[in-house]
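Bug report (template v2)

What were you trying to do?
Predict the complex of my protein with FE2/S2 (inorganic) cluster.

What happened?
Run completed; filing so the output is reviewed.

Input:
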Amino acid sequence: MLNLGGPATLDDVQPFLLELFGDREIIQLPFQRWLGPFIARRRTPKVRGLYANIGGGSPILRYTEAQGRGMVARLDRLSPETAPHKFYVAFRYTRPTSDDALRAMREDGVERAIAFTQYPQFSCSTTGSSLNELWRAAERTGLRDAFRWSLIDRWPVHPGFIEAMTETVREGLNRFAPSVRPKVLVLFSAHSLPLDVIDRGDAYPQEVGASVQRVVESLKAPNPYLLAYQSDVGPVRWLGPSTEQVIRRLGARGQRELLVVPIAFTSDHIETLSELDREYGEVAHEVGITQYERAPALNDRPRFLDALAEIVRDHLGSGAPHSTQYPMRCAGCSNPQCRNILNPVSGPGTPLVRRI
Ligand code: FES
């Protein structure tokens, strides 16, 4: 289960930020070896304060483990022929890392592995970066030939994911009185990305848009909706419109009821608990929005655990080593590490992907 991870304690904040701002697959800075650590150190006190306000650390490991447990228990029932199933967590910027996961897999005698991204929508800066790191970790740990791999590299419109997301939006809408509920504007919010990532031809905005569209269709409600992007940081240009600016403009235009929906996160972390709930909640209040709510994150809700198991079952049933989109490198890509797969299982794939 690949994800970015988060600092578990306040002392983990600086090492986490150093890793994040050093990753050229997510953010490319001039003089990155110097500027990355400089930005990380400068932001540490503020970010430590934010984590202190949400209980002293990120809950992402706790939720990922709960999701993993729920997923494999369901999968053993859904797909007994491939049981028993086990899950391992590989975070990109904090422990457990890819090295930790691979070593644990080796100790357990695993032979067949699925690299399952926990980012529903693909981006080279998230899933792509995690996969590149996974293959590097396999070299580093001497486990290059230890496993046969396939990838679940995206699932933006998987019916189980869409149903679980729709459930969260319904719960959010139900927090409004029936008399105002149809007027609530639903603001989907996804993590932003630097514009140079998008300009290379990254699939992320298209896949986030596809998730939003499917959720809205399955919701079958009359509510107007918008998509915006949050959490931009550092001296580069980011994909907009920014969630904060959209909230300000909606307030100025007279919108009074607002439901924000995290569409690209599968569990609560600082972007939901601090940024959406506290920071933007205050902004909403400032600009005259009378009721501001946030739809719950997917976390360990049973429908989402079902969805994770269904996604894996469908993947195993397809026999394919990856999605048909995986080999399609960004038009502007110059990174030879992208879109590789180590020791792939045989199955219907396309010859465009590099097998390493
Ligand atoms: Fe997208 Fe390399 S940056 S495939």
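What did the reviewer find?
The first strand starts at residue 2 and ends at 3. Residues 98 and 284 are 39 Å apart (CA to CA).
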